[in-house]
Amino acid sequence: MYDKPLPVIDSESRPYWDALKQHRLTLKRCQDCGKHHFYPRALCPHCHSDALEWVDARGTGTIYSFTIARRPAGPAFKADTPYVVAVVELDEGARMMTNIVTADVDAVRIGQRVSVQYEDVTDEVTLPKFRLV
Ligand code: ZN
């Protein structure tokens, strides 16, 4: 039984969650300026174009920022402490908030290379988390 908060899936984010169920990390890419963004939006945050397409991300990136949670964000997270909440800059350039899954939270550093791993938490929801490489 998964008792942590779950994402609200709407029509804009549905393709993203559907791809994650298939263990694919996808991003939206702008056909006008060529940049990727995350989270998925209807308009490009860089140039406001609506010519966007879904593309598969490589699933690799770099830790841009992180914190170590030594107190849980709520009762459901208590068993996970300490855990790492991070912003990962994907190699495509988009940044996403995620967790770094590691047995040694004190070894995590900004700039480390990471790759995605998929956590199937419910029938509907697969979460993309990252591990050090
Ligand atoms: Zn754009």
Biggest sheet architecture: 5 strands, antiparallel
Mass-distribution shape: globular
Unreliable spans are none
CATH architecture: Beta Barrel
Portion of residues within helices: under 10%
Count up the helices: 1
- The mean pLDDT is 96
- The value of Rg in angstroms is 15 Å
Domain unit count: 1
Note the beta-strand portion.
35-45%
Give the ordered list of helices and strands: HEEEEEEEE
CATH class group? Mainly Beta
Please state how the strands of the largest beta sheet are arranged side by side.
6-5-4-7-8
Bound molecules: zinc ion
Number of strands: 8
N-to-C CA distance: 30 Å
CATH-derived topology? OB fold (Dihydrolipoamide Acetyltransferase, E2P)
Structural class computed from helices and strand pairing: mainly beta
